[in-house]
Amino acid sequence: MKRYIIRQEDRADCGACSLLSVIKYYEGYVPLEVIKTDTLTNNTGTNFFYLKEAGTKYGFNGRGKKVEELQNIQLPCIAQIRDNNFLHFITVYEVNDIVTYMDPAKGIVNKPLEEFYEFFTGYVLELIPSGKIVKYEDNKQFQKVIFNIYKNYYKTLILLFILALFVVGLFLITGFNPWFLKNKKMITLVIILSLSKILISYIENNLMSHLNQKINITLLKNYLNQILNLPLKYLQLKKTGDLVNRINDLDNIKNLFSKILLEIIINGFLLIGGLIFLFFIEVKITVILFTLTLIYAIILLKINKKTYYEIISNIESNNNLMDKIIEYLNNIKTVKTNSLN
């Protein structure tokens, strides 16, 4: 059975995320923000009634049930559990001796059936397709914005690409060629090449810093324009700390994207050039190095997946902390003002 992980952005998004997971299972698509609006999700979340009403709007026949066992329920379905004394929505995909479900806060979870029943409230919402499931166009707006911004600075990116090629070439010449290193007559040339590499790297870093500054201004402008165009209802559902931290998130994404872009170019060419050079010296060493590189890449992908979820959790914690700080500062102002009066 196909399973679709939909990560919640806020603590109250679990119901909307669970519904979107079911929609995607039936090859439909509705933006999460639209679902949150249709299910009247607020700071305390939503309920089964609004999930059922939204499901009907998207092409489902919803049936709410109170059950003791899940074996006779049509899957996938939305179920309610208790998580740290809070009610929480999940999407159940498989029920055997092991219950497999999508938790918007954790991802795919497998729990023994008896253990699952310990925190299962008994309430479920069956969603049975009654026709064609609604499918919005997934325009991937954020990716388009990032692509268009970098596209506007393609000349700078080309120049960075050329400088990166020079840095890689100079590194290979001065670092891997034994003839340059052993020939005393070529010491002056090696020094010149090394100084040239440092100078080009300096120019490259300055260009990247200048590019990041321009992109940062453009991203911030687009973000503020987007907030102004959002409906009031959506802004009322968002915490102040979340909106503030999104600016920091944009800056982090921009820095990460620029850094990765440059490092992929430099390290990619360095790896390819180094492997080609080693191939003519010793084939076995080349094969070993290439194999180790692949193993390293696979391990890195596995680690990055776990790190991604930890980053998402940290972002949510930071948003809550920022919101509490803002609320605390506003309370201090209120207390000070009342004291003066």
Overview of this structure, please?
The chain is α+β, with helices and mostly antiparallel strands and 341 residues long. It folds into two domains: 11-129, Cysteine proteinases (Cathepsin B, Chain A), CATH 3.90.70.10; 141-334, ABC transporter type 1, transmembrane domain (ABC transporter transmembrane region fold, Up-down Bundle), CATH 1.20.1560. It has helices at residues 14-25, 32-38, 48-57, 113-119, 141-152, 154-176, 178-182, 187-229, 232-237, 240-281, 283-340; strands at 60-66, 77-83, 86-95, 98-103, 107-112, 120-129. The protein has a six-stranded antiparallel beta sheet with strand order 1-6-2-3-4-5, sandwiched between helices. The radius of gyration is 27 Å and the shape is globular. The mean pLDDT is 78.
Q: Note the run of SSEs as H and E.
A: HHHEEEEEHEHHHHHHH
What is the count of β-strands?
Answer: 6
Major sheet details: 6 strands, antiparallel
For CATH, the homologous superfamily of the largest domain is named as: ABC transporter type 1, transmembrane domain
Count of helical regions: 11
Any idea how many domains?
2
- Kindly name the structural category: alpha+beta
